[in-house]
Amino acid sequence: MERLILLGQDVPVLGQIVERSLARVSICLSAGADPESPSFAYKGSKEFPNEDGAVVLKDGTRWLLAVADGHMGHYVSHRLLEALHESCASVPGRLGQLSLWLSSEEWLQDEMGGSTLLVACHDESTGGVFGLSFGDCTLATVGPQGVAVRNKLSDTYVRADGPIPIEMGQAFQFTLAADELMLLFSDGVNECCYRDPHRSVQLRHIEELATGAGGDPARLARALTQLALTGVDGHPGGQDNVAVVAYTLRNLPENR
């Protein structure tokens, strides 16, 4: 099992983008860029203002990709991601296996606050993708046919007062085409202008960035993170933490 984790507590500097890669997956994380952002009034800790994070696991042909965005503190989001990173013995092959695993652990007994959680499992031998979504992180695919959002966003979050409420999660399942990239990102992208999605990054912006990235997930992840920090169409950006995970089925050149 190959494992990669990147947590907001390790990326606290405004304007900074930290990147990590594992094979065909790239993660970008940023605390945001606007020191006057209204979002900072809702952060649980001034010492750890970045409440986002991401995990990637590779188990043979199977992948697990996850993004979490903490609410009123980084405690729950970081603990969830650390648990996924540390306790996964094998990437689930079915939605039922994922649900059973997520619900069987008491990961949050001593934490405070809440978090979004988006977990996607993918088998590169078949292209199949399935997972669960809690809250407003987004899973999208990008290809010649455009950009499609594959999960249903909600206002149901994971809380620290009990086990993960699997029955409240939004399940999804689809097949990733060979010419598509898969993106997972927190609302620091589509609400980079804080709590104003209409003035934030749209699907058409993602499509334009994907064209420029030429199918390279690292280039797309960085370009999308940078756009979220800058803002679009003259509107403010960088007003919240940003987490982006980008994946492709394609084999990439070693010296990309």
> Main sheet, how many strands, which sense, barrel?
8 strands, antiparallel
Mean pLDDT: 94
Number of helices: 5
Give Rg in angstroms.
17 Å
Strand % is 25-35%
Question: What are the low-pLDDT stretches, counting only 5+ consecutive residues below 50?
Answer: none
Q: What separation lies between the terminal Cα atoms?
A: 24 Å
Query: From the helix content, strand content and strand pairing, which structural class follows?
Result: alpha+beta
How many beta-strand runs? 14
Shape: globular
Helix content: 10-25%
Order of helices and strands: EEEEEHHEEEEEEEEHHHE
Detailed description of the structure:
This protein is α+β, with helices and mostly antiparallel strands. The protein has helices spanning 75-87, 95-103, 187-190, 203-213, 217-230, and strands at 2-7, 18-22, 25-30, 52-59, 62-71, 114-115, 117-123, 128-134, 138-143, 146-149, 158-159, 170-175, 181-185, 242-248. Strands 1, 4, 5, 6, 7, 8, 11 and 12 form an eight-stranded antiparallel beta sheet that branches. Helix 4 packs across helix 5 (217-230). It is globular. The mean pLDDT is 94.
